């Protein structure tokens, strides 16, 4: 069987590319349904893009690489597509856009687009024995117990990264990159909770507070959640993408106010009350109890001098912790690293050395922030490859 384009991976990027590539297109995926990560994203409502998407919201060895694809197919272009298909949506917070109904609406839209374009979709299938022969690729398509030899002019790798292996994620894209001599940037779990030894925060699991979390030289201000294993919540997930093993992170548990000024004011009117009681006006009771086991919070508020209040406030504004790791690919929303962007055209996503071999989406060393940015990269990179293939 001969195809103009074979796309391996029926996720967000692969389906987007397939719907717009033109010609005879085959999409192959080992899953039983397309768009499985789309389906579970955003609590089942798919945070499909972010209104504030820009190159600064992505991590890569080459911070300029994503600019071309993002500029040529923007968040507004995808929003227009969603509107055209009658999918109701809303902004939740910080420019994050979600379906009103279900993430399945996005999958249905992409499937409709592929169907209209005559795309052939093969699920519960796999590709092996890939070779480049002059002006085409030769490969084996495995479907049930059958093995069929197929060829295509273009080959697009859209199999994602290693995140969430229980959903079938593998390092397939990296294997293909190695086979054809493309360099890789070391991968790691990103947008992932931190873990700490000895279940350090288990007793306050479920407590959430607003916070600033800093990893490296990058800070995020959103919610922080204490868990049985360690720390999670949006601010933590964001910071995890900038964290390297062995490094410390810094928590600011008073991002919205100066705790020193607040407690000093309270001392004038409630000095006879227990310090922890007054601290409870600013933090959940369970967190106050936990802090009491970590530091001396004894005495009435009147007993606390300005110096002692300042020291305590400074501690909570710059609490240094060293995670023993993360929860890894098991729960990571995305994979940091991947196919080196230096080996790809930023305009087309095609390999610079292997003609008509494309890598798109999460497989590439472009990692977005939490909040719809990774989906926008899927749409933009998928469209970049599709336009190159179709000549548009």
Describe the structure.
This protein is of the alpha+beta class. The protein is 30% helix and 27% strand. Strands 1, 2, 7, 8, 9, 10 and 20 form a seven-stranded mixed sheet that branches. It has a seven-stranded antiparallel sheet with strand order 17-16-13-14-15-12-18. The protein has a three-stranded antiparallel sheet with strand order 3-6-5. A hairpin with a 3-residue loop joins strand 14 and strand 15 (230-232). Helix 1 runs parallel beside helix 5 (104-116), helix 1 (12-21) packs parallel to helix 12 (373-390) and helix 8 (259-270) packs antiparallel against helix 11.
Task: Reconstruct the topology from this structure.
Blueprint: E1 2-8, H1 12-21, E2 25-28, H2 36-40, E3 47-50, E4 58-59, H3 67-72, H4 75-84, E5 89-91, E6 96-99, H5 104-116, E7 120-122, E8 125-133, E9 136-143, E10 146-157, H6 172-179, E11 184-190, E12 194-195, E13 208-215, E14 218-226, E15 230-232, H7 234-240, E16 249-252, H8 259-270, H9 275-279, H10 285-294, H11 306-317, E17 319-321, E18 325-326, E19 334-339, E20 357-359, E21 367-368, H12 373-390
Helix pairs in contact: 1-5, 1-12, 8-11
Please give a handful of descriptors for the protein shown.
elongated, 392 residues, 30% helix, 21 strands, seven-stranded mixed beta sheet
Which class of secondary structure composition applies to the elements? alpha+beta
Largest sheet: 7 strands, mixed
Mean pLDDT: 97
Gyration radius, to the nearest Å? 25 Å
Kindly state the percentage of residues in helix: 25-40%
First and last CA, distance: 26 Å
Query: Would you identify the regions where 5 or more consecutive residues have pLDDT less than 50?
Result: none
Please report the number of helical segments. 12
Tally of strands: 21
**Shape, per Cα inertia axes:** elongated
Sheet-strand content, in percent, reads 25-35%
């Amino acid at each position: 069987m001969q195809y103009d384009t074979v796309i391996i991976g029926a996720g967000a990027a692969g389906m987007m590319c397939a719907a717009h590539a033109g010609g005879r297109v085959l999409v192959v995926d080992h899953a039983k349904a397309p768009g499985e990560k789309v389906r579970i994203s955003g609590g089942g409502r798919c945070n499909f893009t972010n209104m504030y998407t820009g190159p600064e919201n992505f991590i890569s060895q080459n911070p300029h690489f994503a600019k071309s694809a993002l500029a040529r197919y923007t968040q507004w272009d995808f929003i227009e597509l969603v509107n055209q298909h009658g999918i109701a949506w809303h902004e939740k917070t910080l420019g994050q856009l979600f379906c009103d109904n279900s993430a399945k609406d996005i999958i249905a839209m992409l499937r409709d687009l592929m169907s209209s374009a005559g795309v052939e979709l093969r699920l519960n299938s796999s590709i092996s024995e890939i070779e480049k022969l002059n002006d085409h690729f030769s490969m084996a398509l495995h479907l049930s117990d059958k093995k069929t030899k197929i060829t295509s002019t273009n080959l697009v790798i859209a199999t994602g990264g290693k995140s969430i292996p229980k959903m079938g994620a593998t390092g397939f894209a990296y294997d293909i990159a190695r086979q054809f001599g493309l360099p890789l940037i070391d991968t790691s779990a990103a947008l992932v909770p931190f873990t700490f030894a000895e279940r350090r925060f288990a007793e306050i699991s479920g407590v959430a507070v607003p916070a600033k979390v800093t990893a490296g030289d990058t800070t995020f201000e959103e919610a922080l959640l204490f868990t049985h294993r360690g720390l999670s919540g949006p601010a933590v997930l964001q910071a995890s993408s900038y964290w390297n093993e062995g490094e410390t992170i810094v928590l600011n548990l008073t991002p919205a106010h100066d705790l020193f000024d607040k407690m000093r004011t309270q001392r004038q009117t409630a000095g006879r009350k227990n310090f922890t009681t007054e601290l409870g006006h600013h933090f959940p009771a369970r967190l106050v109890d936990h802090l009491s086991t970590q530091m001396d919070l004894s005495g009435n508020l009147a007993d606390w001098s300005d110096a002692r209040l300042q020291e305590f406030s400074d501690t909570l504004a710059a609490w240094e912790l060293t995670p023993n790791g993360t929860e890894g690919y098991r729960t990571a929303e995305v994979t940091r690293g991947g196919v080196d962007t230096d080996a790809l055209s930023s305009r087309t996503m095609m390999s610079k050395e292997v003609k008509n071999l494309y890598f798109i989406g999460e497989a590439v060393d472009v990692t977005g922030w939490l909040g719809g940015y990774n989906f926008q990269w899927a749409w933009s990179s998928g469209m970049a490859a599709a336009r190159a293939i179709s000549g548009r």
